[in-house]
Design a protein that fits this description.
About 85% of the residues lie in helices and about 0% in strands. By secondary structure, it is mainly α. Helix 2 packs antiparallel against helix 3 and helix 5 runs antiparallel to helix 6. The longest helix is centred in the middle third of the chain and has 74 residues.
């Protein structure tokens, strides 16, 4: 193989590879569909011209048929009137009209066949165009799906699951440490001395309020007269132990809260 042939082959190979890269199948198919649709008006014009020729020949045939009938009548009238010279002239015209009628009839037959074939070809083209358009739309949809899959594959290739997993674990550990620290601070806050002292102060306030309430009841005579502890009669319902017990009970509750 000569050097020039090898250079041509390399050039064609490189050009073909470059075209393959820049060629968009979706755009090419869409343009093909547009080109096929653009040919339909041209086909319609061609079919219309063939059909127009057929219509024109039909009219010529009808006119020649009328002319033949008219000339035949004129010949008969001339013969009847004894004008052989005029009848002879009409016979010459009749013969020419009959030849024209035969030729026109033959042409009309060919034109009718051509018109039918053109119309059939146009219909076949439109049907084939619709079929090709449907196939092209399916190919375009497949091309879009393939493009989407390619983009997804590239995304998955660039996705490093190991690095991201370690990042997730690291962030999870940081969040768990912050949650644990917050819970520990909350626990320390609830068990601090200040909170215990606040509880004692609230309990002392409750005791004072109960003492005030008891004092008001005594003043109002709702509890009877207060008697010394030694003068409480034996068998009485209110004993020294019953009088002292509420105070001891309150002290025990206060000591328990302080603990």
């Amino acid at each position: 193989m000569g050097l020039w042939q090898r250079i041509k082959r390399v050039f064609r190979a490189g050009t073909g590879a470059a075209l393959d890269k820049i060629e968009n199948p979706e755009l090419v198919l869409q343009q093909t569909i547009r080109d096929m649709r653009d040919r339909v008006p041209e086909l319609n014009n061609s079919v219309a011209q063939v059909m127009a020729t057929e219509r024109l020949l039909q009219k010529n045939q009808e006119n020649l048929e009328k002319q033949v009938v008219d000339l035949d009548s004129k010949i008969k009238a001339s013969v009847k009137m004894g004008r052989d010279d005029i009848a002879t002239a009409y016979i010459g015209q009749l013969q020419q009209a009959q030849l024209d009628l035969e030729r026109t009839s033959a042409q009309l037959e060919l034109a009718s066949s051509a018109s039918k074939n053109a119309l059939k070809a146009r219909d076949n083209y439109v049907l084939n165009m619709k079929k090709k358009s449907a196939e092209a739309m399916q190919l375009i949809s497949a091309a879009k799906q393939a493009k989407l899959q390619e983009q997804l594959a590239q995304t998955m290739d660039s996705f490093n699951i190991g690095d991201d997993a370690s990042t997730f674990n690291e962030m999870r550990e940081k969040i768990e440490r912050r949650v644990a620290a917050a819970e520990a601070k909350l626990q320390l806050g609830t068990s601090s001395v200040d909170n215990q002292m606040a509880d004692i102060e609230r309990e002392a306030m409750d005791i004072q309020l109960q003492d005030k309430l008891l004092s008001y009841k005594q003043q109002m005579g709702l509890l009877g007269e207060a008697k010394p502890v030694g003068q409480i009669e034996a068998g009485s319902e209110t004993t020294e132990a019953e009088v002292v017990e509420p105070a001891i009970h309150n002290e025990d509750e206060e000591t328990g809260r302080a603990a």
